[in-house]
Every structure is written in C-alpha cells, then in structure tokens.
TrEMBL record:
GO biological process: polysaccharide biosynthetic process; UDP-glucuronate biosynthetic process
Catalytic residue positions: C260
Single annotated GO MF: UDP-glucose 6-dehydrogenase activity
Record protein name field: UDP-glucose 6-dehydrogenase
Organism (species): Alteribacter lacisalsi
Lineage: Bacteria, Bacillati, Bacillota, Bacilli, Bacillales
Length: 432
C-alpha cells in the first residue's frame, strides 16, 4: 500500500520507517527542509536504537522518501498519517495548531477518497475536527474518512515497541477506513481493538496517565518507606508479583519526565475539567511528580546544611536512558535549584550533552567523560540510569571525589555494592 506520514518526530519517523520495512511505499513529509535533507540522506535525526540501519535500508530499497511537499505524498496515498506534535499550551491543554495546519495542508492537495489517520495524541473530539479541517480545504465532494490510531511507543525503544506492540487501537466510524488501517499493520500481528473515535482518543490519555499515576504512587510509597524503615524496591517487587498490578512502572526515582507523561496528565485533567468533571487522580499524579523532583535538593540540603560553593556532579541529563531527549527532564529543574543554592555544577551524560547544551545555564560545566566529571566533586547525584553509570566502579568516587558521597536517585546500586566501595550512600525509599 501507499502511505504518507506528516511529521518526522519520534512517532512519525518511526511509523514511516516501520511501514516501509513492512513493505509499504512511504513518503514522509516535514516542513523542516534541513531535517528532510538529513533523513533523505539516511541520517537519523533522533537517537533511537536500530533506527539508522532500517532507515538507510528502506531508502536504498526505494520504499521510503522524504519531502517538504504535501503534494508529493498525500494525493497518491491510500492512507495519510498525521504525526505532528501536540505540545502543552499555556493553560495545560494540548495545542492543536500543528495538527490543524497538517490537516489543512492535506486538504489543499487531495481530491479523491482519502483516509486520514491521527497518530498524534489529541483530545477526544479532535478527529472530528480533523475531518472538518481537511474538508474545508479540499475540493467539494472529496470523500474524507478519519481514523484515530494512537501510538504507544516509548522513546529509546521505539523500533522494538512498534514491532512488539501490546495492541493496535483503531478508532473509526467509517468501517472501510478502519479495515484499511488494520490491513496496513497486519504484518505486525498485533492484537487489534476497534473502537469509536472518542474512545480511541481517550485510551491514549488514560494509558499514559495511568502509567504516570503508577510512578507517582510508588514515589509516594518511597516516602512512606523512608519514614517507617521499609525498602520501596522490595515493596514494588511484592506488589508487582500480583498479576493484576504488574511489576512495570513501579520504579521509584526522581519523578517522570519526557514529552508525554507530564503533558498528557495535565491535558487529561483539563479535558475532564472542560467536560465538567474534576479528575482527582490527574491532579494528584502531577502534584506528587513535581514534589519528587525537588526532593533530591531538599535531601542534600538536609545532609549538608548549605550547598553554597559545593562542587556537585550530576550524572545524566536526559529524562531517561536510551534517548537524548531533554523535554521535561528532571535534571533541568535539579540544576536550577542547585544554582539557586549557590552550588558549582558539573554534568555528564553519555549521549544527551549536545541536546542539553542550549538549555543549561552558562556556569554549568559539561564534562567529556565520567572520570572528568567526578574529579574534585563534593557530592555525586545520579539522575539518569545510563548503563555506563550502572556499571561504574564505585571506588572511582572514593579515589576522584573530594568527599565520598553518592545520591542515587534511581536506586541503581545495592547495599553490597556501596559497602564494598565504602561510600556514603543515599537512595530513594530504601532507608539510606
Ligand atoms: C511514554 C509511554 O510509556 C509510551 O507508551 C507512550 O507512547 C509515550 O509516553 C508517548 O505518549 O509518546 P516515554 O515518555 O518515551 O513513553 O517514556 P517511559 O519509558 O514511559 O518513561 C517516562 C518517564 O517515567 C521517564 O522519566 C522514566 O524515568 C519514568 N519512569 C518510568 C519512572 O520513574 N519509573 C518507572 O518505573 C518507569
């Protein structure tokens, strides 16, 4: 089949590459000519395992092209995907400017029957608007069908997640359009749930908010565990052994970040509010997460009294390992608080340093490697659980730092690891 994908961010690019890999003819459209040139040359614009080789192979085999021109992909396509961003607006709602612009640009170039599939995370009711936005620009009588097909891939494992998805949600009123999308993804052999448009749209927000809620829940358990002398990792393990709960997304830490959980939790709260309902869990999930991000600096202040002129090393900048994405990364708010307290901050991240550079205050020093980052440090804060940090020799802290102190905000190390290295160790919800 022929597909066009509008937007080459995480969702659009991975969708385009995977569809081409499945044997479809795919045109990816993006308004950014630089991005298009890079991608057309086989250079991935995001750090995503397995994406590079698949991208080049699909281009070489002639199944994947990139363009800035809607008319080079949309009129010919059986299915046109919208996979543009829906960032948070100033009121915490999803900003639909890019979705609308994409829908109108599609309308500008199509004429026959067109199936428009929204992959972007959009509030319930948006697909109906998309249909209208496309129709407003298309010639009279154009047959437009819309399908809601939310995406559930995680950054850092986007390719794997697409090939091993738990489910494919297809929300459509037009049965033929839904069938077409189901057929497009059939080679993936993923369980399919067909729904109406609004339910598909809500499934996406409900899923992300539920996962965010699990994280905030376990972060609160960590608070309780600290106070009563329990170990939150054991609590999570014991809870997760109950199949109804599942062990996933029960890792206490620094709080969730990224481009999805923070924005989608807020957006669902606003969606509910506009529908006349107060979404208590959404508000609480968000509140606990904000609190969690401040906790590390509070703990350090409690330990040291003052952070003024202390040399602090932050290990990890991206919001999680496996990605260089800095959106809503907890490291940024921690750095801001440390600067406010007068600390000297050195950071090291094996992948995200370049993306982080424009976001960091000028006085922050970016180290080139782990060793350099630890040299002369008074206290080390582990913020992102990259393998390089998980595998680090803890005796480096004793030998390179001026004080022997580690705040492990991802509970990476065990009591034994720490004991043998002889360092002062603080973690999350584990009595230390
Ligand atoms: C999330 C969802 O997991 C995807 O299903 C969804 O498609 C995506 O949002 C989206 O809407 O686009 P992502 O933001 O890439 O994916 O990252 P996750 O792996 O879910 O992690 C999110 C945050 O939660 C990270 O900051 C991570 O460190 C944190 N987290 C995760 C925890 O603190 N504890 C956990 O147990 C799990």
């Amino acid at each position: 089949m022929k597909a066009a994908v509008v937007g080459t961010g995480y969702v659009g690019l991975v969708t385009g590459v995977v569809l081409a890999r499945l044997g479809h003819q795919v045109t990816c459209i993006d308004k950014d000519p630089e991005k298009v040139a890079k991608l057309a040359g086989g250079i991935p614009t995001i750090h995503e395992e397995g994406l590079g080789p698949m991208l080049s192979a699909c281009i070489d085999e002639g199944r994947l092209t990139f363009t800035t021109a809607y008319d080079e992909g949309c009129p010919q396509a059986d299915v046109v995907f919208i996979a543009v961003g829906t960032p948070e607006d100033s009121e915490g709602k999803a900003n639909l400017t890019f979705v609308r612009a994409a829908a109108e640009s599609i309308g500008d170039v199509i004429s026959g029957r067109t199936v428009v599939v929204t992959k972007s995370t959009v509030p319930p009711g948006t697909n109906r608007k998309v249909k209208q936005w496309v129709a407003d620009k298309a010639p009279a009588g154009t047959d437009i069908a819309v399908v809601s097909n939310p995406e559930f891939l995680r950054q850092g494992s986007a390719v794997y997640d697409t090939f091993h998805a738990d489910r494919l949600i297809i929300g459509a009123e037009d049965i033929r359009a839904g069938d077409l999308v189901e057929k497009l993804f059939a080679p993936l052999e993923v369980p399919v749930l067909r729904t109406d448009l609004e339910s598909a749209e809500l499934i996406k927000y409900a899923s992300n908010t539920f996962l965010a809620m699990k994280i905030s829940f376990i972060n609160e358990m960590a608070q309780i565990a600290d106070r009563i002398g329990a170990d939150v990792t054991k609590v999570a393990k014991g809870m997760g052994m109950d199949r109804r709960i599942s062990p996933d997304f029960l890792k206490a830490g620094i709080g969730y970040g990224g481009s999805c959980f923070p924005k989608d939790t807020k957006a669902l709260t606003r969606i509910a509010e506009e529908a006349g309902y107060e979404f208590t869990y959404g508000k609480a999930t968000d509140h606990v997460n904000d609190q969690q991000k401040n906790l590390l600096v509070e703990k350090a202040l409690f330990r040291f009294g003052s952070l003024k002129d202390m040399n602090i090393t932050l290990l990890g900048l991206s919001f999680k390992p496996g990605t260089d994405d800095m959106r809503e990364a907890p490291s940024l708010s921690i750095i801001e608080s440390l600067m406010e307290e007068g600390a000297n901050v050195t950071v090291y991240d094996p992948v995200a340093a370049e993306k982080a550079a424009p976001l960091l205050p000028e006085t922050v020093v970016t180290a080139n490697d782990l060793k350099e980052s630890l040299d002369g440090s008074d206290s080390v804060f582990l913020v992102t659980e990259w393998d390089e940090f998980k595998q680090m020799d803890l005796s480096m802290i004793a030998s390179l730092c001026s004080q022997n102190i580690l705040f492990d905000e991802r509970n990476v190390f065990t009591e034994e690891d720490v004991k043998s290295a002889g360092i002062e160790y603080h973690s999350v919800g584990r009595r230390s």
